[in-house]
Amino acid sequence: MKQAGLLLVIMLLATVQTTDTGRARQGRSGTGGELVQNCTLYFEFLGRTGAGREDTFELDPFGMGYCAGLVRGVANTAHIHMTDQVCVPEDASSAQAVWAVVQYLNNNPLTLSDQDTELVLRAMQSAFPCR
Amino acid sequence: MKQAGLLLVIMLLATVQTTDTGRARQGRSGTGGELVQNCTLYFEFLGRTGAGREDTFELDPFGMGYCAGLVRGVANTAHIHMTDQVCVPEDASSAQAVWAVVQYLNNNPLTLSDQDTELVLRAMQSAFPCR
After folding, report:
1. Is the pLDDT at A87 greater than 80, yes or no?
2. C-alpha–C-alpha distance, residues B2 and A98, integer Å
3. Residue A24 included in any domain
């Protein structure tokens, strides 16, 4: 029975791994629907400690890294080169920027088929407007 | 002996995992030095097939996702909103953009302590200039 359980765990892990690797290359749609999943998970990870943290990390590390990179890339580029549109405070954390994206996507579900880069930009404009 | 080998593998995996999770939150420097590692690995992953592909993916999925997201975020934002500076061809692939970043960083090693977002932008300006 124990062996059957172990086999099941190994099979599940293998499935997750394959799916994860596959999505990393081919299955990424680059839309808001995928982004809200990645960023919600990453935000959860940022707030966790201990074993729960490891468990969350294992769910989709590529997706979380993608969220982290995309949000940083868009926020920094906009903050430095689109100075009339996005003004991120000096003390804003990565978690705050990620949370702004999650909130924006949850509040605007009709945009979930839009391109993820544009959605992050709109979220930054909404959360960190220039006064 | 076999058991000792298995234990070693498990310990190594646990170490990699912990380091990976730690880097995901705290150890990211956000510089070119880290980016060249992430993007070189991701480019390698994109070109691989079979078991080698899985092995490469396992090395640092968060870092590869970070590269993918950062390059996409900066390239798209610049292409759409900084139209006089970056003109990415319609048929350019993600792999081409990632390769442009790796090449730029390898050709400009003195910039490796600069901020990663700015380096991606410079790489895009260099690889995809507007004529």
Report:
1. yes
2. 45
3. no
Task: Say if A109 falls within a structural domain.
Answer: yes
ipTM computed for the complex: 0.81
Contact A61 B24 (CB under 8 A): yes
Domain count within chain B: 1
Closest CA to B72 of A22, A30, A29, A105: A30
pLDDT in tens, B65-94: 999 999 999 999 999 999 899 999 989 999
Structure tokens at B22: 């730690």
8-state DSSP, A31: B
Task: Note whether A68 contacts B65, CB cutoff 8 Å.
Answer: yes
Please check whether residue A13 lies inside any domain of the structure. no
Residue span of the structural domain in which A63 resides = 29-127
- Min CA distance, B100 vs chain A (Å)? 16
